[in-house]
What we know:
Pfam families: Cytidylate_kin
Helix content: 40-55%
Number of strands: 9
Organism: Cellulomonas marina
CATH topology: Rossmann fold
Subcellular location: Cytoplasm
Bound molecules: adenosine-5'-diphosphate, deoxycytidine diphosphate
Catalytic activity: dCMP + ATP = dCDP + ADP; CMP + ATP = CDP + ADP
Oligomer: single chain
EC number: 2.7.4.25
Number of domains: 1
Amino acid sequence: MSTAGGPRGHGDVSTGDVSTGDVSTDDGLVVAVDGPSGSGKSSVSRAVARALGLAYLDTGAMYRAATLWCVRQGVALDDAPAVTAAVRALPLEQGLDPEAPTVLLDGDDVTAAIRTTEVSAAVSAVATNLDARAALGDRQRAVIAAERTGGWSGGRGVVAEGRDITTAIAPDAPVRVLLTASEGARLRRRSLEVHGTADAAAVAATHDQVVRRDAQDSTVVEFRTAADGVVTVDSSDLSFEETVDALLAVVRAAGRA
Length: 257
Ligand SMILES: Nc1ncnc2c1ncn2[C@@H]1O[C@H](COP(=O)(O)OP(=O)(O)O)[C@@H](O)[C@H]1O
Ligand SMILES: Nc1ccn([C@H]2C[C@H](O)[C@@H](COP(=O)(O)OP(=O)(O)O)O2)c(=O)n1
């Protein structure tokens, strides 16, 4: 895979098409990244996608958008069948440009709205609903398959990040990484991001959306230990740039950059 140039395609990609299709080994690259909250998945995956000219698929954004959609439609998040029905019909369009990933719900730009504390606190209700997971997983597989042969990246490929990409969504990806960091590092990062400080009060206020949420999510998905063949990158003592370089080194080691 050449790192020169940018993506050949353009425009947003509807994530409602669940067709997958066969792919050959000559097709575009798939980099699968999983890990707990605050490990750096989103920011590092975006930077890796930019560096390699690949599309960027934030699967956590899909769970967040599904949660916001349920709230807006008046669907009770503890009503699992109603949540499943809403998620199956989710009017989601996701922009895959790593420079500016966007999320539209029924045409409404919710890129910022899905990051609120309210959504962060509620999203595990969708993430632990197995039928909703299956529906979102189908969409994720369809996007990944499309990017391997065309799509936004023009067939260059995609960096897809989440909790089950290396294991359930793209277990055959040529590059699979579990991005980890200590709980302390993850709390400090999220606290800095959300509150602008990592003092004791801010870290305590961040606990729910990092530690409690990961504990709840890990009841249905294993994202704390690497599956066979998945490379672990521990970013606890790495700067952001060093973490991006570590992932690019994994891609190079796989002979794909
Ligand atoms: N290696 C790192 N060192 C310091 N800060 C980082 C590192 N990686 C990510 N960050 C910062 O930590 C915060 C959380 O990262 P993010 O990519 O949102 O994590 P995740 O998607 O895993 O929850 C962001 O503000 C990001 O810029
Ligand atoms: N492939 C995925 C991606 C995200 N999730 C869940 C886990 C999280 O609670 C939510 C939101 O994911 P997101 O990656 O945005 O979470 P962070 O705030 O970055 O920790 O979705 C999942 O279960 N499976």
